[in-house]
Write a structure and sequence with these properties.
The protein is 45% helix and 15% strand. The chain contains 27 helices and 32 strands. It has a 7-stranded mixed β-sheet, with helices on both faces. α2 crosses α3 and α20 crosses α24.
């Protein structure tokens, strides 16, 4: 366009479409809910919108083969494990109750106790039967051994073996006399050989008077006699052993008449081959160890010795105890266990040790304790995956157990260096489903990095955060009533429930949806109950719910208020009135940990002649995330497609979020950046009383974004702090209209004409709203695209005239084709 030609008249745009207060508002009428208070409602369990996750849980619990363990993702909040346990309990309530697990002594290998799986209730019964058996035998066997017939039998055995012993002693005396010696017995049990002379003991003086040959002969005869005495003593010892054996056999025969019938009576109560075989081993061991049932007189020694004697007697009887590891007596349905602390001991069990009277660490099979995997046999155990991965040795042992479906209880106590006994019960075949809860990112990592994980956890139950708002409303209301009942809260009236529905839709950023998880809704209910009680009322109303929601904001919005104060005082430069070239208000969402709010930022564009393309200043300062960088590249693509079809796109432009000193990410400001750039190129000012949000694609279509409610409310609060003019508002993607669940103050301002919402589909519609000028086309004189194309053509011709070599390079320039800078992140989402 010749420089001396008159400036073309700009073509005004048609008035933009504006949302009415009714379109911008989302409200639920209490009259539409069909009840007055939650006290009238029947409480039903419902998980509308979670059909996929429920189907996954059902298949994981129903398939009996190994590997169908479950990974649950998507459940949120501190009560996710109890909520999951409630769901699993409903799915398993009709299943048969599992039996009992017991441990007994292995009389063939005392280091490997035997494990039995018995019908529910039989574990305690077997323990009582063995306890009663031991008590009966402690009373009956001593009485039996004191009976006259048994004493007579022992006396006869003693007499018979006594005569044989006397005969051996007589033979000893005779042999000694034949050798010229007399035998004298020492009170301590030893023997002395006294030489004889003339049938009388020889005095020492007489021995000294003997000649050397006589003394040597006497010593020789003494040695021969010693050899004969040793042989006779061995015969006497063998005689004593035979006597002891026959006495024991007699005792065993007499005791068997007592023990056998009692064992047989117990055995008839159990239709379990392993138990009957065990009882036979108990009988044989008892008959072989009758000393454990004898009456032990009080020890005259000091107290520690008496304690050791009592402990020794008890050790023998421990062998006949029954350790009930798992007792399911009275249980209905399969167990569902939440293991909140999945340590090795808590999951797999433990072999506990104790200090005996001598100070040593010892144990026995009654000190073995079951873990949650054994207690969950026939049902399921819920574990947090992050806890399981962080506990030493748990993850590998868990995978090994689930692959084999065999549980091994081992001693895991690296600090017990002086333990004298190590037990390892025989492996137990279990059918326990493990349900891991955790974030989806951990599932992805384990699935691709741990080959065994995908074979063990074949089922994934992914819970969604939202459900259909229409079909799910009855379920939502029923869930509110259920929380009221379970937590014994005051009843909520229909108005309060309507506010909770609106709050739920706001949580999921969609008025057509409702949350299917209840952490934040339940917290809002509890806070509403607090304000209800503080007001001295017995019924929670919409006023109390509104007060709870407002107080949530008040407690956390100090930083938000401070930023508005900075904008009002001119510390942060944001214009909310007038018009400027190359400048527009962008909107960001800041998250300060548990609280999100929208804040406006001034987005500026500066254009100059050059060939460096679009420079993203945030990226150059390493403050830009990858998604934001992508948005800038898309802007360059839009410029090439729209304007550079018959001339090269030659410019140097910079985009900047002014007074932004923290990380920034997201592409929802890409439309605002494009509007600022087009304004700078065309020279047409943009309205500063409007803020813009929405991403853009290379075809010029405006795309939906997140956090719209925070952005609208944040800009409205900013305008309110500076001063409402009646022209201020937001330009937003039309696809986001269903996301609007605004606070009542914003809706009232829209209704009063103090604030405006302009939905747009394309960049052209946005330009019309922001400039009041038709976007038109590059061939339509007086339109914004025509002005932009003319400026770009002029810049291209200028580059050709001056030559690219004459333009100084930028040391850190970011061309359109350069790769993204690594390591750039952001805390703020746009």
């Amino acid at each position: 366009m010749p420089s001396d030609s008159p400036a073309p008249e700009l073509k005004p745009a048609a008035p933009p479409r504006e949302l009415s207060a009714e379109e911008a508002a989302f409200s639920v009428s209490p009259a539409d809910l069909g009840f007055r208070t939650t006290a009238e409602l029947a409480v039903t369990a419902g998980w509308v919108g979670q059909e996929r996750a429920l189907a996954a849980l059902e298949i994981g619990l129903s398939v009996a083969h190994a590997g169908f363990n479950i990974y649950v993702s998507g459940l949120m909040g501190t009560r996710r494990e109890p909520m999951l346990a409630e769901i699993l309990g409903g799915l398993t309530q009709d299943r048969p109750s599992p039996g009992d697990w017991v441990l007994v002594q292995n009389f063939q290998n005392f280091d490997q106790p035997c494990a039995f799986y018995l019908p529910a209730g039989h574990g305690k019964q077997l323990r009582r039967d063995l306890e009663e058996l031991v008590e009966d035998l402690k009373r009956l066997l001593p009485e039996t051994f004191r009976r006259e017939t048994f004493e007579d039998e022992k006396e006869q055995l003693s007499d018979r073996y006594g005569h044989e012993g006397e005969e051996i002693a007589r033979q000893l005396q005779q042999h000694a006399r034949e050798k010229g010696f007399a035998v004298q017995f020492n009170p301590q049990g030893g023997l002395f050989f006294i030489p004889l002379k003339d049938g009388k003991p020889m005095e020492p003086e007489e021995f000294e008077k003997l000649s050397t040959e006589e003394q040597e002969d006497l010593r020789r005869r003494e040695r021969e006699l010693s050899r004969e005495v040793k042989s006779m003593l061995r015969r006497q010892q063998a005689l004593g052993r035979r006597l002891g054996h026959e006495v024991k056999q007699a005792e065993r025969r007499v005791a068997a008449e007592v023990v056998g019938p009692l064992i047989e009576e117990i055995s008839q109560r159990y239709d379990h081959q392993e138990v009957r075989h065990y009882l036979l081993e108990v009988r044989d061991h008892m008959l072989d160890n009758l000393d454990a049932f004898r009456e032990h007189p009080p020890s005259p020694g000091p107290l520690p010795f008496a304690m050791m004697s009592a402990a020794s007697a008890q050790d023998g009887l421990v062998n006949y105890e029954v350790s009930v590891l798992v007792d399911n007596n009275g249980r209905t349905g399969a167990p569902v266990i939440i293991e909140s602390s999945p340590t090795y001991r808590n999951l797999f069990g433990a072999v506990e040790r104790m200090v005996d009277p001598s100070g040593k660490l010892v144990t026995n099979f009654t000190r073995i304790k079951a873990g949650s995997l054994l207690r969950g046999h026939g049902g399921c155990v819920i574990i947090n995956v992050l806890d399981a991965l962080s506990e030493p040795l748990v993850w590998r042992a868990l995978k090994r157990t689930l692959k084999s479906e065999r549980l091994e209880i081992e001693a895991y106590d690296p600090f017990a260096l002086f333990a004298t006994t190590t037990l390892k019960p025989e492996p137990m075949q279990i059918s326990t489903r493990v349900v891991l809860t955790g974030p989806p990112e951990i599932f992805q990592l384990l699935y691709f990095l741990d080959e065994e994980f995908r074979e063990i956890f074949k089922v994934r139950a992914d819970f969604g955060y939202e459900g259909d708002g229409n079909d799910g409303r009855p379920s939502f209301v029923a869930q509110v009533a259920r929380i009221v009942r379970d937590e014994q809260l005051p009843p909520f009236d229909a108005g309060a429930v309507a506010r909770l529905i609106e709050f739920g839709a706001r949580l999921v950023n969609d008025r057509r949806k409702l949350p299917s998880q209840w952490g934040e809704v339940a917290d809002a209910m509890r806070e509403a109950v607090f304000w209800c009680g503080k007001a001295g009322e017995q019924l929670v109303t919409d006023v109390h719910v509104g007060q709870a929601l407002d107080q949530r904001i008040f407690r956390l919005n100090r930083i938000e208020e401070k930023l508005r104060e900075f904008i009002r005082d001119g510390v942060l430069l944001v214009d909310v009135d007038g018009g400027k070239v190359g400048q527009v208000n962008g909107l960001a969402v800041a998250n300060i940990g548990g609280y999100e709010f929208g804040r406006p930022s001034r987005v500026t564009a500066a254009v100059a002649m050059g060939t460096h393309g679009i420079i993203n200043i945030e990226r150059e300062a390493h403050l830009s995330g990858q998604t934001h960088d992508k948005g800038v590249f898309i802007i360059a693509g839009y410029l090439r497609r729209t304007y550079a079809q018959d001339f090269p796109l030659s410019l140097t432009a910079s985009l900047c979020f002014e007074q932004s000193y923290s990380g920034i990410d997201g592409d929802s400001a890409s439309s605002a950046e494009l509007f600022a750039l087009l304004s700078s190129l065309s020279g047409v000012p943009l309205r500063q009383d409007l803020a813009v949000t929405g991403s853009v694609n290379q075809w010029g279509e405006i795309q939906p974004i997140g956090g719209l409610n925070y952005k609208v409310e944040g800009f409205f609060a900013t305008c309110q702090a500076v001063g409402l003019t009646g022209r201020q508002g937001i330009v937003l993607p039309i696809q986001n209209v269903h996301s609007l669940v605004l606070r009542p103050t914003v809706v009232e301002a829209i209704r009063d004409g103090q604030f405006h919402l302009y939905p747009i589909r394309t960049v052209d519609e946005g330009l019309a709203v922001l400039t009041g000028v038709q976007a038109g086309g590059i061939e339509q004189v007086g339109t914004l695209h025509w002005l932009t194309a003319q400026r770009l053509r002029t810049l291209a011709e200028g580059v050709r005239s001056f030559g690219a070599a004459a333009l100084p390079p930028l040391p850190t320039s970011v061309g359109e084709a350069e790769k993204p800078t690594p390591g750039v992140g952001g805390e703020r989402r746009l």
